[in-house]
Amino acid sequence: MAHAKLKRMLESGEFFYAPGAQDMIAATVASRHGFDALYASGYWLTASAYGLPDAGIVSYTQMLDRVSLLARQAGDTPVIADADTGYGGLLNVDHTVRGYEAAGVTAIQLEDQEFPKKCGHTPFKRVVPADVMATKIRVAVEARNDPNFLVIARTDALQPEGFEAALARAELYGQAGADIVFVEAMTERDQMQEACRRITKPVIANMASGGQTPILSISELKEIGFACAIFPALSSLAAAAAMDKAYAVLKAEGIATSPDVPLFDFGQFSRMIGFEEVWAFERKWADAQPSDDNAT
After folding, report:
1. Does residue 75 come out as left (phi exceeding 0), alpha (psi in the -120 to 50 range) or beta?
2. Any signal peptide, and if so, which residues (predicted)?
3. Which residue spans of the chain are classified as CATH 3.20.20.60?
4. Which helix (H) or strand (E) holds 231?
5. Against a cut of 0.85, is the pTM above it?
6. Which residues of 79-99 are buried (b: 16+ CB within 10 A; e: fewer)?
7. Does the N-terminal peptide bond of residue 116 adopt cis geometry, omega within 30 degrees of 0?
8. In this structure, are residues 111 and 157 in contact, taking their beta carbons and an 8 Å threshold?
9. Which DSSP helix (H) or strand (E) runs through 219?
10. What is residue 196's three-state secondary structure?
11. Taking Cα atoms as reference points, which of 81, 65, 111, 95 lies closest to residue 2?
12. Mapping DSSP to helix (H, G, I), strand (E, B) and coil, where does residue 257 land?
């Protein structure tokens, strides 16, 4: 079931934002900080689970498995999930929306690239005709069962067709029923301002660290007019940098402890992922456990 929180915030005009969570550890750590939502990025879930690029290689079934685990791990925190192109035609879009909703996702993101899609901040993207994507959005809206389940329509048309075409597509997708629209890979602050000024539906900002879009603060994004934002790459790049540093120190110095490598407290981490409950269970049922001598 989708969380009502994001729709409520969207309708009231309250800005919300979601850091990316590439795996279950990231989702668990993020839960300590009380974010409005978490973002399940196709790029980073694919990289984390399979070590593959975001190039349409991973299937719907594989992504649904990861998204389902993430939504379960997130608990009371809503999950915004990337569903690429919907993994095929209109029937696939219908199936994808129903699957993501059943998995506990609160908002699904669909894009207008041709299959196989590419990461939004890489070259050689191609988009389907605008009316084809608009029909996909209408199918997605009709496929949902929970009124709190949100549909986000992303256009990647800026690179192949230009800014004006991207804005026209975003407006069309909003008219088709998308709750939120997403103009991917804007390269200038002026473009971001113009998009928010001219698009009538709520607009989401993609603060992809290392990508083509300027990284702005939450206050700046609010001032420009965005309704919400995602930070898909933050935790993944931070984790990769930390691991790279730790491995470098181990290789160079031959030791696993160093003031240059901060470590999360192991006991705290164990409790955070649920070991307290395991230990409590073991204490409760200690006398009922069969001994090795009685085992059969």
Report:
1. left
2. none
3. 5-233
4. strand 228-231
5. yes
6. bbbbbbbbbeeeebbbbbbeb
7. yes
8. no
9. helix 218-224
10. helix
11. 81
12. coil
Q: Tell me 214's DSSP state.
A: P
Compute the distance between CA of residue 191 and CA of residue 203 in angstroms, rounded to an integer: 12
Start-to-end C-alpha separation, the chain: 43
Tell me how far apart the alpha carbons of residues 39 and 71 are, in angstroms, rounded to a whole number: 10
Mean pLDDT in order along the chain per 10 residues (296 residues): 95 98 96 96 94 91 96 96 96 98 98 86 90 98 98 96 97 98 95 97 96 95 98 97 96 92 94 93 86 56
d(CA 163, CA 242): 37
Cβ neighbors of 193 (< 8 A, separation 6 or more) are: 224, 225
How would you list the strands of the sheet with 79-82, edge to edge?
38-40, 79-82, 107-111, 150-155, 180-183
Helices (H) and strands (E) in the chain, counts: 13, 8
CB 260 within 8 Å of CB 242? no
Q: In angstroms, rounded to a whole number, what is the distance separating the alpha carbons of residues 196 and 208?
A: 18
Specify the CATH architecture of the domain 5-233. Alpha-Beta Barrel (3.20)
SS3 (DSSP) at 279: helix
Q: What is the DSSP string of 149-176?
A: -EEEEEE-THHHH-HHHHHHHHHHHHHT
Residues in the chain: 296
Nearest to 77 by CA among 45, 114, 115, 30: 30
Closest CA to 53 of 116, 103, 126: 116
How far is CA 70 from each of CA 26, 79, 174, 238, 261, rounded to the nearest angstrom?
Answer: 9, 8, 28, 19, 28
- Distance CA(63)–CA(49), nearest Å, equals 9
